[in-house]
Amino acid sequence: MKTTRAIDTFVEETGGWVASQLEACTRCGICAEACHFYQATGNPDFAPVWKVELLKRAYEQEFTLGGKLRTMLHLQKKVDEADLEAWSKLVYEACTVCNKCAMVCPMGIQLGPIIHDVRAGLAEAGMVPDDLAAAVNKQIEEGSPLGVTDDVFESRLEWIADDWEIDLPVDKEGADTLVIFSSIEIMKFPDNLAHIASILNAAGENWTLSSKAREVVNFGFYEGSADHTRLLLSRVFDGAVELGVKKIVVTECGHAYDALRWTAPNLMDVPDIEITHIAAVLGEYVESGRITLKAGAYDGDGKITFHDACKIQRRGGHIEEPRKLLSILAPESFTEMTPNREQAICCGGGGGVIAIKEADPIRYKAFELKIAQAEAVGAETVVMACSNCRLQFLDGAEHFDWDMKFRGLAEMVAEAME
Ligand code: SF4
Ligand code: SF4
After folding, report:
1. 123 and 81 assigned to the same domain
2. Are 282 and 318 within one domain?
3. Which of 97, 127, 157 is the last residue of a domain?
């Protein structure tokens, strides 16, 4: 039954585009070296091409003569529940859906989205790892994977407004811009709310938070379930439409930005509202003179490097804005890790991996690559624009007893405003 549900979903997903991508693979294996989980462990099962093998096999067995013959002659076994279990571990625990592998594939195969399709089949079959499934259910039932209920949201905002002496408008009529934070920021990095609010207020933005669209994370998207992704997206869009805003600003959350900006139009009717990321907004404010920064504010604090988040920089294209900001804030001490920009490797905690306890050993293994990259340039501070990455860096630093400072891009901008 589980297998049938998974295969039905795979069949639905393998429309013309996916089929042509699967057919195009020459099995050269180049993608393996691009994957941080393979790089960190050398385990061939973690090669991106192997992670899509389940979908490829199901596609061949359903649609191609060769695949049908191979199963008929028992040269290849039919996809079964044991395969679903094995691939569940591979695509949820050993893949952050970062799509770095697609950057190197000579055939231009978009492995990340295809791995997402494998997750879709597994989600349909109920083969999502328990921790991730629990977070999805919590978000559906309570409105948040981290417990940001109506009451918690209200009390957190009151506390932040009081403690940081900052104006945090909620459900403001006539606002142009809706700003939506992730639950990680609300619960673990509340100072980010205060910092971003201070920047928006200084720039004279007519903005608001929403009590309905309280947080932007989308655990349905991590899980791969189209229905759950749509449900959680619709909560955000409904809140935005109700307020009549013209723009939505996603704060420091990469996967939510991907879900809202690029995945949503492929899943549902979306309102005509501009969607952007706070990294782009910060760049715009500085460029247009709406805020000014103290030049060199962070020079003298040791070397500073920037971690590119897969969904904000590689996927979102907001590669130059953080660099322009850091070249003002720390012209002497800003230094690049290698590789960087769209070629950067993932922190290892994206795609829901950080939420899965069983994934901890390989998540830490992958994180060792980031430690090596930051140390290679002598960095003393790593800056980033994604709170999920920041959580991974903090947790990884604690695990390895790594002496390093981590800062959010918005926090640095807020503290350096003239
Ligand atoms: S790099 Fe592309 S063509 Fe080569 S094995 Fe990977 S997916 Fe297939
Ligand atoms: S999407 Fe990222 S984590 Fe997943 S296989 Fe490709 S490189 Fe590895």
Report:
1. yes
2. no
3. 127
* Residue where one domain finishes, among candidates 127, 148, 178: 127
Query: What SS3 class is residue 274?
Result: strand
Residue whose CA lies nearest to ligand 1 atom number 8:
25
44 Cβ closer than 6 Å to some ligand 1 atom:
no
Convert the pLDDT of each residue in 282-317 to its tens digit.
Answer: 999 999 999 999 999 999 889 999 999 999 999 999
My answer on whether 300 and 383 are in the same domain is yes
Instruction: Please check whether residues 22 and 113 belong to one and the same domain.
Output: yes
Q: Are residues 120 and 165 in the same domain?
A: no
Tens digits of residue pLDDT in 115-149: 999 999 999 999 999 999 999 999 999 999 999 99
Tokens of 178: 């809706």
The parent domain of residue 231 ranges over 131-286
Instruction: State the Cα–Cα distance between residues 398 and 195, nearest whole angstrom.
Output: 25
- Angle of helix 2-13 versus helix 81-88 axis, rounded to 10: 70
Residue nearest to atom 2 of ligand 1 (CA): 105
Give the CATH number of the domain where residue 140 resides. Answer: 3.40.50
DSSP reduced 3-state for 337? coil
What confidence score (pLDDT) does residue 74 get? 84
Give, for ligand 1, the residue of 49, 56, 104 to mutate: max count of ligand atoms closer than 8 Å to Cβ: 49
**Residues 91 and 154 placed together within one structural domain of the fold:** no
Residue with the smallest CA separation from ligand 2 atom 2 is 98
Distance 106 CA to ligand 1 centre (A): 7
Ligand sitting nearest the alpha carbon of 48: 2
User: Which residue is associated with the tokens 């089949």?
Assistant: 121
Q: Is there a contact between 163 and 202 (Cβ–Cβ < 8 Å)?
A: no
Q: Which ligand has the nearest atom to the CA of 114?
A: 2
Residue 59 — pLDDT band, cuts 50, 70, 90?
confident
Same-domain check for residues 99 and 194:
no
Which protein residue's CA is at the shortest distance from atom 3 of ligand 2?
95
What spacing in Å lies between the alpha carbon of 324 and ligand 2's midpoint?
28
3-state helix, strand, coil in the chain (%, to 5): 60, 10, 35
Nearest alpha carbon, ligand 2 atom 6: 101
Please state the domain count of the chain.
Answer: 3
Predicted local distance difference test score (pLDDT) of residue 9: 82
